[in-house]
Amino acid sequence: SATIIDGKAFAAGLRARIADGVTAFRTQAGRAPGLAVVLVGEDPASSVYVRSKGKATREAGMESIEHRLPADVSADALLALVATLNTDPAIDGILVQLPLPRHIDEQAVISAIDPDKDVDGFHPINAGRLATGLPGFVPCTPFGCVLLLKSVLPSLSGLEAVVVGRSNIVGKPMAQLLLRESCTVTVVHSRTKDVPAHIRRADIVVAAVGIPQMIKGDWLKPGATVIDVGINRTETGLVGDVDFASAVDVAGAITPVPGGVGPMTIACLLRNTLVSAGRREGVAVDEAMLDRAGL
Ligand code: NAD
């Protein structure tokens, strides 16, 4: 039976290292790192995410600045807020919680954020930096996935990796990160002709689809490392995109849902905010220490 990758424990360790880094930053910079979170409307899932991000930010010793705007706010008003946050010296990270109401052009808002405060890593400049190997900000969920992979695999170099899903938030940056780790990367998606055939060759499977328990154990190569990004609410509770019950007998290591990738996302957001603060204030932040593979 597979090793269960304990994302909750890994994220707790990462958050403890971040809190130490924040203490050191505060001593040198004379202020705390600041993360601004903007929530438009009252989508229940988004409200929960924003609340837990605020809590985690404060627990790490950082300043959480939350802006709640009504669902009918104009695009101009939202863009004006982003512009203010861009120039506010106390703000190191800006996160606009997605999805935005339909009358607002999401891409325009993302592009309005200062790329050097874009701790979500969604700005096209940061996507380009990731693709070209320049330092920037990497989207939190795929970044967390790489940390989990490195916690169970001594080296990713040369491994066959299959990413299921091609979203801008998870699938595409995941593929770029795996390429950066010298994996041989395949991205499969809704138009792929034979998804199981690709997955059968994979040493690493990263599932980011949003279809409950789509990937079955008998699709996996024995011993494969399986990272399940999916968070699907079903009658029986939260399940991933991987059929855990059948996969756990075939995989070498696998993330559970919940308790796998989920906790890593917020931890990596805090990590990016501390790194941003360090870059902006010229204070050294030990990224290798933050990103180390052990607990
Ligand atoms: P998305 O809907 O934007 O993208 C889904 C992708 O899956 C698309 O690229 C699509 O082509 C592909 N797809 C759809 N049907 C497919 C099929 N039959 N075979 C292969 N590919 C198929 O979703 P997303 O934002 O990337 O999120 C994916 C999942 O991850 C969701 O369950 C979401 O809730 C979860 N998620 C979790 C976290 C976290 O923190 N753990 C963060 C983001 C997203």
From TrEMBL:
It comes from the Bacteria. It catalyses: (6R)-5,10-methenyltetrahydrofolate + H2O = (6R)-10-formyltetrahydrofolate + H(+); (6R)-5,10-methylene-5,6,7,8-tetrahydrofolate + NADP(+) = (6R)-5,10-methenyltetrahydrofolate + NADPH. Keywords: Amino-acid biosynthesis, Histidine biosynthesis, Hydrolase, Methionine biosynthesis, Multifunctional enzyme, NADP, One-carbon metabolism, Oxidoreductase, Purine biosynthesis. GO terms for molecular function: methenyltetrahydrofolate cyclohydrolase activity; methylenetetrahydrofolate dehydrogenase (NADP+) activity. Residues 139-278 form the Tetrahydrofolate dehydrogenase/cyclohydrolase NAD(P)-binding domain. SUPFAM superfamilies: Aminoacid dehydrogenase-like, N-terminal domain, NAD(P)-binding Rossmann-fold domains. Residues 5-120 form the Tetrahydrofolate dehydrogenase/cyclohydrolase catalytic domain. Catalyzes the oxidation of 5,10-methylenetetrahydrofolate to 5,10-methenyltetrahydrofolate and then the hydrolysis of 5,10-methenyltetrahydrofolate to 10-formyltetrahydrofolate. Belongs to the tetrahydrofolate dehydrogenase/cyclohydrolase family. Homodimer. This is Bifunctional protein FolD. It comes from Sphingomonas aurantiaca. The gene is folD.
